[in-house]
What does this fold into?
Amino acid sequence: KRGETHRMRICLRCIILIHKSYPRDYTTNITSAIISKLQRQLHLQPSHPLGILRTLIENHFSSFSHFSDVSPLVTPAKNFDDLSFPADHPGRSVTDSYYINKDLMLRTHTSAHEVETFAKGERQWLLTADVYRRDEIDASHYPVFHQMEGAAIFGADANSMKELEEKNAYLVNYLKSTNIIIEDVPHLSASNPVQSAHDPHHAETVAHNLKLSLNSLILALFGGRKDEPLRVRWIEAYFPFTSPSYEVEVFFNGKWLEILGSGVVLQSTLERANVPNSIGWAFGLGLERIAMILFGIPDIRLFWSEDPRFLSQFLPGKITNFKPYSRYPPCYKDLSFWLPENGLHENDFCDMVRDTAGDIVEDVQLIDSFTHPKTDRKSQCYRINYRSMDNSLSNDQANEIHAGVVSRLKESFGVEIR
Ligand code: FA5
Ligand code: MG
It folds into this structure.
């Protein structure tokens, strides 16, 4: 009994993560569903699709340093300020990111480690890690996913740039001999400008090297098919910490799929890392997105499955096609309620659903919003799809789980069910 009281006190004021206790405050929004994921380290398991993919990419960039065991707990300064995110960037808000308290959060991207890695003197490196975002729920979004950051810096002098141009010429030639169709954008443009700190010619050379390096990687991962050329598309993008910036999409199963963000690293990042007189590029790959294509994995929740019917299918170093072992029927439940006076953010709703029902939730959709013409009260209706990946879910079981969601909704947000 005493032990229990003690535990209660700790739980109210503190939060225990990876064997350490942290004080809670008004920003604390990390859920137990998320806490349970912190130590899974799927990307370190040699025969897990994410581990296999990490190793394949590391082997491709064999001259780079490789990091894959860095704690997900970072300061907001590391995740945002070091990368020149503006003070009012929406990613900083508690509706978008997980906070342990105001001074500590779960990284939302692997770019959070750019400054410290460059500061260690690493000039060409890959860093793979779990990242955390509060987001919608569907087959390709999950609040925890994995990214791989890749970066390379070069001397910002005429000789180093000449060397890089020679490397580029070699890569251009190599890519010409392969079965890949690349839709490109200009390296620099009015809407995707060179940084004022950079010589435009240097920036062009670095951006060209970024594109060639990634096109070769994509070819190594997705290519190897003689019947059909691989189609890759470069698109202008915006990130607070690169300029120019690009996204890359790969054409797969009749659809364009965004797999990475990239660009020429902001000079202020390199100055913070104490590596002036350098210029370089960085990219951030979404590993699940790529693994879903390569292994034919239809649902992002499967990566977290501990079912041997999933795990036993994969072998270290090999890309093999996933064979679905079950597709149990979905079970839809609608939930209509009047919003509390100060509203309810969709991410708060989704997180509560995920925390209460776990991975049984396949997706959550807002299907109706309504404002009462007389009282001005607002109501919403969400449709939740419950479906287990590992066994069949009876309607009674789904009802019981759904009842848990409803009571938590009332308790946590004070809403009135319609
Ligand atoms: C970033 O996170 C940047 N840090 C990438 C970057 C690095 C840009 C270095 C420039 C230089 P973005 O939010 O677009 O960017 O995410 C990068 C990739 O992660 C996406 O292309 C996608 O493949 C993957 N991704 C993003 N959100 C999710 C999600 N909710 N679930 C699964 N994969 C995701
Ligand atoms: Mg993006």
Q: What stands out?
A: The pocket of magnesium ion (ligand 2) is lined by residues 247, 258, 261 (CB under 6 Å). The longest helix spans residues 200-222. The mean pLDDT is 93.
